[in-house]
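Title: [Solved] MoaD/ThiS family protein 3D structure

Original question kept below for reference.
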Amino acid sequence: MISLESRKITVEIDQNGQKTERDIEILKNETYESLLKKLNINEETVLVFNNKKPVPYDDVIESGKIQILKVVFDQ
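Solution (posted by the thread starter after getting help):
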């Protein structure tokens, strides 16, 4: 049975040193990968942290401080 319970989380996005915060509604068993899709962020361009620890994209989102760090590549 799929739970449709939802909750709000605050996500900090750091791009080139500029930090913004967004409140996002997520489902109980939502993954970091689906969070990135909701935010329209390409998962190949970011690192995701929860409480300052890197997390795999397929993990279920846990409580804590979610940070998304956009990585910039010079060519």
